[in-house]
Design a protein that fits this description.
homodimer, 379 residues, alpha/beta, Aspartate Aminotransferase, domain 2, Aspartate Aminotransferase, domain 1, 2 domains, seven-stranded mixed beta sheet, three-stranded antiparallel beta sheet, 11 helices, 12 strands, pyridoxal phosphate (chains A, B)
């Protein structure tokens, strides 16, 4: 890269954010102290086990859970799969229906289809499930499990998990809360029976996930032959330890980092709304502090991501991930908003006002260029 | 640790070895270059994808496979589960029997039970499956998959995979070769249709595994909703990259490191055989270069591991892993040898002759002390 070129701005920090500096340091320490198998009896194994237990304890403290209620998995997708499968199986006597929000992650929707009979609760145009409708669905007989995300990682909208948890508890149905887009960015309420969270989303490593289950939730394992059904074969202790250290670091700064990014998102929402033929989606107020999504008419999402990348800005898109997932976002479809020409911004804690202003200066001409290439004249 | 104390000697390097120095360097590089999601379209994502593809290419070169035949998984156990499940499903029309060796890993045995009908081929007292019996079992109608490890990680015995692969191929049955204890330590023959290997065993990280499938093996995925059925949600690119760099490093030195450790194992086998009431197990010749196992009469394995740990030596044991797996080793049981009082040694490339001599000096009195504590007088 030439020294005269402005530095790249990475605005795609949802799900896979750059490493928090303290997570990197923690990883290096754990490479030395935690390389051994924590299931072994010797000193090296016991040292690795202590690091792993310490990591569980740190995550539990943030969640308001007990250490033994927190496990590490092989990633967020694995945690969601396991939570749905085991949560549904644990209540099999109560029925096989699994009630989910329409904007849950694909991993939850597919696991629910595989583990039982899925009942999907619709969301409104802001992406929010109606608490009353969700509570009613959970309260009917035959429900094994309910799943509602704390906040949606694509559009930022926060869901009414507290009210839904009250209803689920009254019905004796465990509630899985996917906090994969929120833990590390916003306070996560304690109103869950199962909870999954994603270290890679808060500046920790990919390749490890968090799954918590309240002691009152009875989860069947896969039998004595598999001492770690949450993560067959075990997890990387250095990754787990780095995850916990990153979480402690971002929690210490949660309010300030949230307020800073909330203002930047407000600025982006206001400025983008001025671009012709755009729809800014998601709840403008009850939302994650760092996520904002908008869709342009007459624009191909993949082309726009590529054009912005050429200009030095990395952004996400609900309709441009990889060749194999180039289908329209089911989240945007469920909200009834534009599903193409989509840009998803997830701000890092380090994103500055100057970064945002540079992006906002580059965005309208980039949209214009993509429209021109498609033969659509700007207004 | 006091400076006057001799350094600890780690002799439990099977399955979770200390990091190879080059793997550590590679990890640090990949933390900078490979933190992004390799499925993303922007520059950071493409850079991570290049690192991941490079890692697949490097592993493929060692295996004599094509890059697209090699995938990373969430660990060795996950690779074995996936290989058995997908391998059996891919041939479902051909039958549902899965032929396995008696000393395969628990992950293979349990996955075979879950995916079909398991037929287990016995091993002899050295731990070797009879090639003729295995070939006959594979050749009968109704077999979906066969699984035979290249070498056993507990006792070191090498299996006749070449001959079995000839028979499997003639019968049109895919052969899964578990190279989890051998890749990085010995030449792995190219006679496989599916192969699983374990980076943590060769000085790479835990939390990532290798699964290779020949192009002629048709493996069903889990559908378009899951672009990476091998590793739902994806793997850690830094861990995958570090795995590949470690493998290249140990392959460059394979013959020398093998010869050095083979001699040390010969020395251990000879010396341990002189301890009263001991059985040294596994094939003394056709074996892994670095693994040796022996069992003592009148000794509790966990107590002996703990006593040796106190003396500064970390060893493994087939009967002392964690509280949840304190059952006798199914490998030793299948061989018809002593299943208790077991010590498993897996030498590191860096293990020196002096380390081994110190261990051999400490072992007999340690055995004696454990026997005395149990009320058994030494001979």
């Amino acid at each position: 890269m030439e020294s005269s070129a402005p530095p790249r701005v990475h605005l795609d920090n949802g799900g896979r954010a750059p490493w928090h500096p303290l997570a990197r340091e923690a990883l290096l320490q754990a490479l030395d102290d935690g390389w051994a198998d924590p299931r072994r009896l010797h000193a090296e194994g016991r040292r690795a086990a202590r690091l792993l237990d310490g990591a569980r304890e740190a995550v539990a403290a943030v969640l308001g859970a007990r250490t033994e209620e927190v496990r590490f998995t092989h990633g967020h997708t694995a945690a969601l799969h396991r939570a749905v499968t085991a949560g549904a199986a644990g209540r099999r006597r109560g029925g096989r229906r699994i009630v989910v929000g329409a904007t849950e992650r694909a991993a939850v929707l597919h696991a629910a289809d595989a583990a039982g009979e899925r009942e999907t609760v619709a969301v409104d145009r802001l992406g929010r499930a109606d608490a009353g409708a969700f509570a009613a669905a959970v309260s009917r007989p035959g429900v094994a499990l309910a799943a509602l995300q704390h906040a949606n990682g694509e559009v930022g909208t926060v869901q009414p998990v507290e009210g839904v948890h009250d209803a689920a508890r009254a019905a004796g149905v465990p509630l899985l809360v996917d906090a994969g887009a929120s833990l590390g960015h916003a306070r996560v309420p304690a109103t869950w029976d199962l909870l999954a969270a994603d270290p890679a989303d808060w500046g920790g490593p990919a390749g490890v996930g968090v799954l918590a289950a309240r002691g009152r939730v009875r989860l069947p394992g896969t039998g004595p032959e598999d001492p770690e059904p949450w993560a067959p074969g075990g997890v990387s202790v250095p990754l787990a330890f780095a995850s916990a250290v990153a979480l402690e670091a971002v929690q210490a700064d949660l309010a300030a980092a949230g307020a800073h990014r909330r203002e930047l998102v407000d600025r982006i929402r206001a400025a983008v709304a001025g671009v012709p033929d755009v729809e800014v989606v998601g709840d403008p107020d009850t939302r994650l502090p760092h996520v904002v999504t908008f869709s342009f008419l007459y624009v191909d999402g993949e082309a726009l991501v590529t054009e912005l990348d050429r200009q030095g800005f990395a952004v996400g898109s609900g309709s441009a991930c990889t060749a194999s997932t180039l289908e329209p976002s089911h989240v945007l479809a469920a909200m009834g908003v534009l599903t193409h020409g989509n840009v998803r911004i997830a701000l890092d804690r380090a994103t500055s006002e100057a970064d945002v202003e540079r992006f906002l200066a580059v965005l309208p001409p980039a949209v214009e260029r993509v429209r021109e290439a498609l033969g659509v004249r700007g207004l």
